[in-house]
Write a structure and sequence with these properties.
The structure holds two protein chains of two kinds.
Chain A: H1 3-27, H2 36-57, H3 70-86, H4 89-107
Helix pairs in contact in A: 3-4
Chain B: H1 2-42, H2 48-56, H3 60-71, H4 76-87, H5 89-97, H6 108-113, H7 117-125, H8 134-159, H9 172-188, H10 193-209, H11 215-228, H12 230-237
Helix pairs in contact in B: 1-2, 1-3, 1-8, 1-9, 2-8, 3-4, 7-8, 7-9, 10-11
Classes of the chains: A mainly alpha, B mainly alpha.
């Protein structure tokens, strides 16, 4: 690829990305109310998206080969338990991450 | 003059409220951005490539995929559609944020330009106190998150080879953040149908389609299921 072709490729990636970001706002723009069904989906979506993002983060974990997803499972339990106990976002995230790092570096 | 002062105060209050919420992303993006910048240099690209791409594309997974696109034959159509597919989840974020981003005025184009998984999750789930301006809060969350990513990519590109300490596993900071956001939402919501649909549909599609292509089918299933369960979900929302 020449430098120009590389810039075109990067530009197209940027344009495609912007399309996915701006499209909903352009389609349902201004003072016009979005259709009722779209409003419903917009309200109902967040819970489902958060669930999808958790799965997305864990998509590379294999439960049939070593380490069988154990470091992830243990670290997730730590995050959930600490969060239910203290309800402090940063504390739960930091503890879970440190536990995970120790597990993959020292145990598994 | 008083008015000016107040205006500054509004921004500072929003920034003070936004910054702590972005701390996990500071850790995650610095690390991921650095790996990305370092990786691009290792593949032989000039130092400004990862910096440029982290500014104009600003999407972690696509930027990594774009490296392999740039290393293969020039095929603009494939690049464009690959990018659309990888980034399609932003359509969801936009629909979920239509209402929240209403009335954010001149900040709105940037809020949409800089939308990523992390900024969406924070802005969509944050409880913003009465005395904090929503628009500026969203703005600072978005701006801080993108700055972390650009900073990480630049550092990785310029001095990546100097970092030597063992960071294996630090990428879990992102997973941990999404779990906490999911859990917080779970504890607050009146019904769990939507959350359960999100997890179950994604897991089933992951098993059926594999980790590289499950996201689009999962998104389609989620929308269909949300329509199917419109009545019970709608009842609880009211």
């Amino acid at each position: 690829m020449t430098l120009t072709q590389q810039f075109i490729t990067i530009g197209l990636c940027a344009v495609a990305t912007m399309l996915t970001r701006f499209l909903p706002f352009l389609v349902f723009s201004g003072d016009r109310e979005a259709p009722k069904l779209v409003q419903y989906i917009g309200k109902a979506l967040p819970g489902a998206i958060f669930g999808m993002l958790v799965v997305y983060c864990l998509k590379g974990v294999s439960v049939i080969s070593f380490s069988y997803g154990l470091p992830e499972l243990i670290a997730i339990c730590v995050v959930v338990l600490i969060h239910l106990w203290q309800r402090k976002m940063l504390l739960s995230i930091a503890t879970g991450t440190v536990v995970y790092m120790l597990l993959v570096q020292l145990v598994f | 003059m008083n008015k000016e002062k107040n205006k500054g105060g509004v921004k500072i209050r929003a920034l003070k409220h936004a910054f702590p919420k972005t701390l996990p992303i500071l850790a995650g993006f610095l690390f991921l951005g650095m790996s990305y910048g370092f990786y691009m240099r290792a593949e032989g690209f000039p130092f400004y490539f990862p910096i440029l791409m982290s500014i104009v594309i600003f999407g972690g997974s696509l930027e990594f995929v774009a490296v392999s696109m740039l290393l293969s034959l020039f095929s603009p159509v494939t690049a464009f559609f690959m990018a659309l597919v990888i980034q399609a989840r932003h359509l969801f974020y936009g629909i979920a944020l239509l209402d929240k981003y209403k009335g954010t005025g001149k900040k709105k184009p940037y809020l949409i330009f800089g939308m990523c998984d992390e900024s969406f999750s924070i802005n969509c789930s944050a409880e913003i106190p009465e005395d904090v301006d929503k628009g500026w809060f969203y703005f600072f969350v978005t701006l801080l998150n993108q700055s972390y990513w650009v900073l990480g990519a630049s550092l990785g590109s310029l001095v990546g080879s100097l970092v030597a300490f063992n960071t294996e596993g630090i990428e879990f900071v992102m997973t941990a953040m999404f779990i906490v956001i999911f859990l917080e939402n779970w504890l607050k919501e009146k019904q769990h149908i939507s959350s359960l649909i999100g997890v179950i549909a994604s897991v089933i599609c992951l098993l059926l389609f594999g980790k590289d292509s499950f996201l689009i089918p999962a998104m389609v299933c989620i929308v269909l299921l949300l329509f199917a369960f419109k009545r019970p979900i709608g009842r609880c929302e009211k």
